[in-house]
Design a protein that fits this description.
10% strand; oxidoreductase activity, acting on the CH-OH group of donors, NAD or NADP as acceptor; 8 helices; 49% helix; 235 residues; SDR_fam; NAD(P)-bd_dom_sf; alpha/beta; NADP
Amino acid sequence: MMKTFKATATRLEALSRNNVKILEADVTDAKALSLAAVEVAKATNNKLDYLINNAGSSTNPGLTLDQFPSPMAVEKDLIDNFKINTIGVVHSTNAFLPLLKNGSDKRVLILSSGLGDLDFTLAAETGAQASYSIAKAAVNMVVAKYAAQFKADGFVFLAISPGIVDVAATRGSEPTAGELEEFKMLSKAVGKAAPDFKGPITPEESVKMQLELLNRWTVEETGAFVSHLGNKQWM
Protein backbone atom coordinates (compact mmCIF):
# COMPACT_ATOMS: atom_id res chain seq x y z
CA MET A 1 0.00 0.00 0.00
CA MET A 2 1.11 3.57 -0.62
CA LYS A 3 2.03 5.39 2.55
CA THR A 4 3.79 8.62 3.41
CA PHE A 5 5.89 8.24 6.52
CA LYS A 6 6.91 11.27 8.54
CA ALA A 7 10.26 9.66 9.25
CA THR A 8 11.14 9.61 5.53
CA ALA A 9 10.10 13.22 4.85
CA THR A 10 13.57 14.43 5.69
CA ARG A 11 13.78 17.05 2.94
CA LEU A 12 10.51 18.63 4.01
CA GLU A 13 11.63 18.58 7.63
CA ALA A 14 14.88 20.26 6.63
CA LEU A 15 12.98 23.24 5.22
CA SER A 16 11.97 24.19 8.78
CA ARG A 17 9.14 26.40 7.55
CA ASN A 18 6.15 27.35 9.61
CA ASN A 19 3.85 26.94 6.60
CA VAL A 20 4.86 23.29 6.00
CA LYS A 21 2.96 20.74 8.05
CA ILE A 22 3.78 17.06 7.55
CA LEU A 23 1.03 14.51 8.15
CA GLU A 24 1.01 10.73 7.72
CA ALA A 25 -1.74 8.81 5.91
CA ASP A 26 -2.40 5.83 3.66
CA VAL A 27 -4.28 6.78 0.47
CA THR A 28 -6.08 3.43 0.55
CA ASP A 29 -7.36 4.13 4.09
CA ALA A 30 -10.35 6.49 3.97
CA LYS A 31 -10.43 6.84 7.77
CA ALA A 32 -6.77 7.85 7.93
CA LEU A 33 -7.33 10.45 5.21
CA SER A 34 -10.35 11.86 7.05
CA LEU A 35 -8.20 12.25 10.17
CA ALA A 36 -5.53 13.99 8.10
CA ALA A 37 -8.16 16.35 6.71
CA VAL A 38 -9.20 17.24 10.26
CA GLU A 39 -5.60 18.19 11.06
CA VAL A 40 -5.34 20.26 7.87
CA ALA A 41 -8.59 22.04 8.73
CA LYS A 42 -7.11 23.11 12.08
CA ALA A 43 -4.11 24.66 10.31
CA THR A 44 -6.02 26.35 7.47
CA ASN A 45 -9.13 27.66 9.20
CA ASN A 46 -11.24 24.92 7.59
CA LYS A 47 -10.27 25.95 4.05
CA LEU A 48 -8.19 24.55 1.21
CA ASP A 49 -7.45 26.10 -2.19
CA TYR A 50 -5.37 23.34 -3.77
CA LEU A 51 -5.27 19.56 -3.52
CA ILE A 52 -2.55 17.65 -5.36
CA ASN A 53 -3.03 13.89 -5.56
CA ASN A 54 0.53 12.71 -6.13
CA ALA A 55 0.56 9.22 -4.58
CA GLY A 56 0.92 6.33 -6.99
CA SER A 57 2.52 2.94 -7.43
CA SER A 58 3.37 0.45 -10.14
CA THR A 59 3.89 -3.29 -9.70
CA ASN A 60 5.22 -5.90 -12.11
CA PRO A 61 5.89 -3.31 -14.85
CA GLY A 62 7.40 -5.77 -17.29
CA LEU A 63 4.50 -8.24 -17.36
CA THR A 64 1.72 -8.19 -19.92
CA LEU A 65 -1.75 -9.37 -18.92
CA ASP A 66 -1.12 -12.89 -20.20
CA GLN A 67 2.29 -13.36 -18.53
CA PHE A 68 1.28 -13.65 -14.88
CA PRO A 69 1.84 -17.07 -13.29
CA SER A 70 -1.85 -17.55 -12.46
CA PRO A 71 -5.29 -15.95 -12.80
CA MET A 72 -5.11 -15.02 -9.11
CA ALA A 73 -1.79 -13.25 -9.66
CA VAL A 74 -3.05 -11.04 -12.47
CA GLU A 75 -6.23 -10.31 -10.52
CA LYS A 76 -4.25 -9.28 -7.45
CA ASP A 77 -1.98 -7.04 -9.52
CA LEU A 78 -4.95 -5.31 -11.13
CA ILE A 79 -6.68 -4.79 -7.79
CA ASP A 80 -3.55 -3.53 -6.02
CA ASN A 81 -2.89 -0.96 -8.73
CA PHE A 82 -6.54 0.07 -8.83
CA LYS A 83 -6.70 0.54 -5.05
CA ILE A 84 -3.69 2.85 -4.97
CA ASN A 85 -3.87 4.70 -8.28
CA THR A 86 -7.64 5.04 -8.65
CA ILE A 87 -9.54 4.40 -5.43
CA GLY A 88 -6.84 6.22 -3.47
CA VAL A 89 -7.57 9.37 -5.47
CA VAL A 90 -11.28 9.05 -4.71
CA HIS A 91 -10.65 8.63 -0.97
CA SER A 92 -8.20 11.56 -0.91
CA THR A 93 -10.48 13.86 -2.88
CA ASN A 94 -13.55 13.00 -0.82
CA ALA A 95 -11.67 13.58 2.43
CA PHE A 96 -10.66 17.11 1.45
CA LEU A 97 -13.73 18.16 -0.56
CA PRO A 98 -15.39 19.94 2.39
CA LEU A 99 -12.28 22.11 2.84
CA LEU A 100 -12.01 22.77 -0.89
CA LYS A 101 -15.61 23.93 -1.00
CA ASN A 102 -14.67 26.61 1.53
CA GLY A 103 -11.59 27.65 -0.43
CA SER A 104 -11.12 30.39 -2.99
CA ASP A 105 -9.44 28.64 -5.91
CA LYS A 106 -10.90 25.12 -5.62
CA ARG A 107 -8.23 23.45 -7.75
CA VAL A 108 -7.53 19.70 -7.73
CA LEU A 109 -4.59 18.17 -9.58
CA ILE A 110 -4.31 14.43 -10.11
CA LEU A 111 -0.99 13.02 -11.31
CA SER A 112 -1.88 10.68 -14.14
CA SER A 113 0.28 9.15 -16.87
CA GLY A 114 0.53 9.06 -20.62
CA LEU A 115 0.51 5.29 -20.17
CA GLY A 116 -3.20 5.66 -19.44
CA ASP A 117 -3.81 7.11 -22.90
CA LEU A 118 -5.30 4.68 -25.44
CA ASP A 119 -3.72 6.32 -28.47
CA PHE A 120 -0.24 6.27 -26.94
CA THR A 121 -0.61 2.61 -25.96
CA LEU A 122 -1.54 1.65 -29.51
CA ALA A 123 1.20 3.79 -31.05
CA ALA A 124 3.83 2.38 -28.68
CA GLU A 125 2.62 -1.17 -29.34
CA THR A 126 3.27 -2.16 -25.74
CA GLY A 127 1.28 -4.50 -23.53
CA ALA A 128 3.55 -3.98 -20.51
CA GLN A 129 2.74 -1.83 -17.47
CA ALA A 130 -0.75 -3.23 -17.91
CA SER A 131 -2.25 -2.91 -14.43
CA TYR A 132 -0.77 0.55 -13.85
CA SER A 133 -1.93 1.80 -17.25
CA ILE A 134 -5.46 0.48 -16.70
CA ALA A 135 -5.62 2.14 -13.27
CA LYS A 136 -4.42 5.46 -14.71
CA ALA A 137 -6.99 5.29 -17.51
CA ALA A 138 -9.62 4.76 -14.81
CA VAL A 139 -8.42 7.71 -12.75
CA ASN A 140 -8.83 9.96 -15.79
CA MET A 141 -12.52 9.09 -15.71
CA VAL A 142 -12.56 9.80 -11.97
CA VAL A 143 -11.31 13.30 -12.78
CA ALA A 144 -14.00 13.75 -15.44
CA LYS A 145 -16.73 12.62 -13.02
CA TYR A 146 -15.68 15.07 -10.30
CA ALA A 147 -15.32 17.83 -12.90
CA ALA A 148 -18.82 17.27 -14.23
CA GLN A 149 -20.29 17.24 -10.73
CA PHE A 150 -18.55 20.32 -9.37
CA LYS A 151 -18.14 22.57 -12.42
CA ALA A 152 -21.09 24.71 -11.36
CA ASP A 153 -19.38 25.25 -8.01
CA GLY A 154 -16.30 26.74 -9.65
CA PHE A 155 -13.98 23.75 -9.23
CA VAL A 156 -11.10 22.96 -11.56
CA PHE A 157 -10.18 19.27 -11.76
CA LEU A 158 -7.19 18.44 -13.93
CA ALA A 159 -5.31 15.19 -14.67
CA ILE A 160 -1.72 15.79 -15.76
CA SER A 161 0.94 13.40 -16.98
CA PRO A 162 4.23 14.79 -15.60
CA GLY A 163 6.28 13.64 -18.58
CA ILE A 164 9.27 11.33 -18.31
CA VAL A 165 11.13 12.70 -15.31
CA ASP A 166 14.65 11.90 -14.11
CA VAL A 167 14.14 11.32 -10.38
CA ALA A 168 17.48 9.57 -9.78
CA ALA A 169 19.06 12.60 -8.14
CA THR A 170 16.17 13.12 -5.74
CA ARG A 171 15.71 9.59 -4.44
CA GLY A 172 19.18 9.01 -2.97
CA SER A 173 19.36 5.32 -3.87
CA GLU A 174 20.00 3.00 -6.81
CA PRO A 175 17.00 1.91 -8.91
CA THR A 176 15.46 -1.46 -8.12
CA ALA A 177 15.37 -4.35 -10.59
CA GLY A 178 11.69 -3.60 -11.21
CA GLU A 179 12.44 0.05 -11.94
CA LEU A 180 15.20 -0.90 -14.37
CA GLU A 181 12.76 -3.22 -16.14
CA GLU A 182 10.23 -0.40 -16.26
CA PHE A 183 12.83 1.96 -17.76
CA LYS A 184 13.71 -0.58 -20.47
CA MET A 185 10.04 -1.02 -21.31
CA LEU A 186 9.46 2.74 -21.46
CA SER A 187 12.51 3.29 -23.64
CA LYS A 188 11.25 0.74 -26.15
CA ALA A 189 7.74 2.23 -26.15
CA VAL A 190 9.01 5.79 -26.49
CA GLY A 191 11.19 4.77 -29.42
CA LYS A 192 8.07 3.73 -31.32
CA ALA A 193 5.60 6.39 -30.22
CA ALA A 194 7.94 9.40 -29.97
CA PRO A 195 11.11 8.87 -32.05
CA ASP A 196 12.13 12.53 -31.58
CA PHE A 197 12.15 12.25 -27.78
CA LYS A 198 15.22 14.07 -26.44
CA GLY A 199 15.40 12.60 -22.95
CA PRO A 200 13.84 13.03 -19.50
CA ILE A 201 13.26 16.36 -17.82
CA THR A 202 14.19 17.28 -14.26
CA PRO A 203 11.68 17.16 -11.38
CA GLU A 204 11.93 20.95 -11.11
CA GLU A 205 11.04 21.42 -14.78
CA SER A 206 8.10 19.04 -14.54
CA VAL A 207 6.69 20.59 -11.37
CA LYS A 208 7.03 24.12 -12.76
CA MET A 209 5.13 23.22 -15.94
CA GLN A 210 2.43 21.36 -14.04
CA LEU A 211 1.80 24.22 -11.63
CA GLU A 212 1.67 26.72 -14.48
CA LEU A 213 -1.00 24.59 -16.15
CA LEU A 214 -2.98 24.15 -12.95
CA ASN A 215 -2.98 27.89 -12.23
CA ARG A 216 -4.06 28.96 -15.71
CA TRP A 217 -6.64 26.21 -16.32
CA THR A 218 -10.19 27.52 -16.42
CA VAL A 219 -13.43 26.15 -15.03
CA GLU A 220 -14.66 25.76 -18.62
CA GLU A 221 -11.75 23.36 -19.27
CA THR A 222 -12.20 21.34 -16.09
CA GLY A 223 -11.91 17.56 -16.30
CA ALA A 224 -9.17 17.46 -18.93
CA PHE A 225 -6.35 14.93 -19.16
CA VAL A 226 -3.21 16.53 -20.59
CA SER A 227 0.55 16.26 -20.54
CA HIS A 228 2.92 18.64 -18.74
CA LEU A 229 2.90 20.55 -22.04
CA GLY A 230 -0.84 21.12 -21.86
CA ASN A 231 -1.65 18.84 -24.79
CA LYS A 232 -1.48 15.16 -25.74
CA GLN A 233 2.28 15.15 -26.31
CA TRP A 234 3.30 12.88 -23.45
CA MET A 235 7.10 13.13 -23.90
